[in-house]
Amino acid sequence: MRVEVVPYGEMPLDRGRLDALRELLSRLESQGAHGVVKIRSFAGLFCLAGNPTDGYVPAAEGVPLTKCDLIGNPAEESSFAQQRQSLAFANLIAGIRQRTAGAITVTIETSSNTTKAATAYPARSESLTAGEWNKVAATNNRVEFQFEPTAS
Fold first, then answer.
1. Which residues contact residue 107 at a Cβ distance below 8 angstroms, ignoring those fewer than 6 apart?
2. What is the pTM of this model?
3. Which of the listed ranges 57-66, 76-85, 89-98 does the model predict with the highest average pLDDT?
4. Nearest to residue 82, comparing CAs of 105, 110, 116?
5. With 0-12 CB in 10 A as exposed, 13-18 as middle and 19+ as buried, what is 13?
6. What are the φ and ψ backbone dihedral angles of 63, each rounded to 5 degrees?
7. What confidence tens digit (pLDDT) does each residue in 19-47 have?
8. What's the whole-number mean pLDDT along residues 109-118?
9. What are phi and psi of 77, to 5 degrees?
10. Where does residue 52 rank: exposed (0-12), middle (13-18), buried (19+ CB within 10 A)?
11. Any idea which fold 2-149 has?
């Protein structure tokens, strides 16, 4: 399994994750592999400052967690599957299916941000800061790639 961290506010299925998928698919295709590449996207829960009208940004590091305007990931929570991937990402997925005549397929799953945290969030306390919380949220804001071979 390969794990790629997604910076807050970036489209999960684009940029560095596009390069990672391209590399994985190229390797599988050159090996003549048959199977499914499962992509799972997870949204970290960030301590944010802002509001729904103007938008949210990660709170300053020294802000107490109790002063966050929102703990969540509104961009991820409100986006549809198509908004989570770039056109280049969608084209790469379609291309591999076509080039391999369906021998390699790709599935995409968006998982609940609380179902499988890579790193446990710290216990909330008066002394916990946004910086400490967001460091963990950043590791949980990720995309996982896993190849599951099938009989050819």
1. 36, 37, 38, 39
2. 0.86
3. 57-66
4. 110
5. buried
6. -70, 135
7. 999 999 999 999 999 999 999 999 999 99
8. 72
9. -70, -25
10. exposed
11. 60s Ribosomal Protein L30; Chain: A; (3.30.1330)
Instruction: Provide the CA 113 distance to its chain's centre, in angstroms.
Output: 10
Please tell me the predicted confidence (pLDDT) of residue 29. 96
Structure tokens at 137: 């949220």
Of the two residues 139 and 152, the one the predictor is more confident about is 139
Domain extent listing, the chain? 2-149
Q: What percent of the chain has pLDDT over 90?
A: 74
More confident position, 80 or 30: 30
User: DSSP alpha helices (H): ranges in the chain?
Assistant: 15-30, 74-77, 87-99, 130-140
In this structure, what token pair is assigned to residue 102?
């369906």
Taking Cα atoms as reference points, which of 94, 116, 115 lies closest to residue 106?
94
Distance CA 43, CA 67 (A): 21
Tokens of 128: 């916990």
Phi–psi pair at 111, nearest 5 degrees: -100, 150
